[in-house]
Prior knowledge:
Blueprint (H helix, E strand, L loop, with lengths): L2 H15 L2 E5 L24 E9 L2 E10 L7 E3 L22 E8 L1 H6 L4 E2 L1 H11 L7 E5 L9 H5 L11 E2 L1 H10 L4 E3 L18 H8 L3 E4 L12 E7 L7 E11 L1
Parallel strand pairs: 5-7, 6-8, 7-9, 9-10
Antiparallel strand pairs: 1-12, 2-3, 4-10, 4-12, 5-11, 11-12
Helix pairs in contact: 5-6
Amino acid sequence: MSTTAAALQSLAAALADGSVRVVDLTQPLHEKTPVLKLPPPFANTPGLTRHEISNYDDRGPAWAWNWLEIGEHVGTHFDAPIHWISGKDGDDLASVPPERLVGPAVMIDKSAEASADHDYVLTVDDVRAFESEHGALPEGGWLLLRTGWDARADDEDRFLNADESGMPHTPGVDAECARWLAQETPIVGIGVETVGTDAGGAALFEPPFPVHNFFLGAGKYGLTQLANLAELPPTGAVLVAAPLKLVGGTGSPVRVIALVSG
Length: 262
């Protein structure tokens, strides 16, 4: 047996005996899933609506199924480069190399900071401090930012956290950190617990929405509305993200899991 085959067999055995655990990082998707709200004059995405085709009845006596009406960027979802103007010549969903959908993950926990300041943003210094303790960001890996925001996901008003003017107040990444992560580190993507990869106030950053701008412009990816990041170690997890292989797709709802030591 080759070394690679033996490693895969060992992984299967570890999954079976619980020494490697599967953590679901995906929020449940339903008709009340919080959805991003853009101000006028911008168009907004629909959430999820189910349309029944048959339900064990005369339209189909032995089966039940529905057709779905949903935006590409609803719930826990994957941002492909063509989602943003800076990446418009990059990969659509169907073009994302599958090997980039599996990789090492680091989890930076800033839940205390985000609890104290809903507008908290991750900085380059924050990431360098993490690296000084845990090692460099991994080649082909994912940076997952924990802010505790997943606890709000069952209440759209609390999740979006908009003030009287409509401005959302949610944590994220500052502009220089977004540029540095996208252009100068070997990670392939970033994952967050909030409704989008950018902070709530990022429309006022320079450039606006820097995580979208820099990551997607660099041919990298985003994951949003993640859950259960508290169950991950700072390093050592393996992330698997499985968006639809949608031709021309700018994004899609995604099932995200992590493999962690049991």
